[in-house]
Amino acid sequence: MTVDERHETDTERLDRNWGSLIQELRVVETGVQFLTGFLLVLPFQTGFAVLSHPLRLVYLVTVGASIGATVFIVAPVSWHRILFRRHRLGHVVSTAHRCAMTGLGLLGVAMTGVILLVFHTVLGPVAAVVAGAVAAVLFAAVWLIMPWRWRRTPR
């Protein structure tokens, strides 16, 4: 069904798009916040002190990506609240879309970092690099490449 077949006004379409986007963000938000919380307490664990300098850098990039994902995934709510009843829904929806995509990208980076850290701790550096690479390829393929390919194919 195309937008024309819906017989909706621009405002109705924006409302539908906003509702859809917020539902998608709700699915991701809790997981991102749990991941961020988990990562924030790691330095206070006894085993953290034995991490090598390179692994500490991986940890910091991972934490930064997770916090960034949290910021971008929650940002649309703030945008909507601040611009509520200002007839800016089109701007809010387009900005929220960009925030969601950025947040998901950062979430992929954070999850790849977590996988790398876990595999390094459990199985060593070679397994960590392999697992991190596999995770990065999977995130890119499933979250980006496949949807973009389907977007370009006719119905």
From TrEMBL:
UniProt keyword list: Membrane, Transmembrane, Transmembrane helix
Short name of any one Pfam family annotated for the protein: DUF6328
InterPro entries xrefs: DUF6328 (IPR046291)
Annotated transmembrane regions: 32-51, 57-79, 100-120, 126-146
Protein name listed in UniProt: Sodium:proton antiporter
Species this chain originates from: Nocardia arthritidis
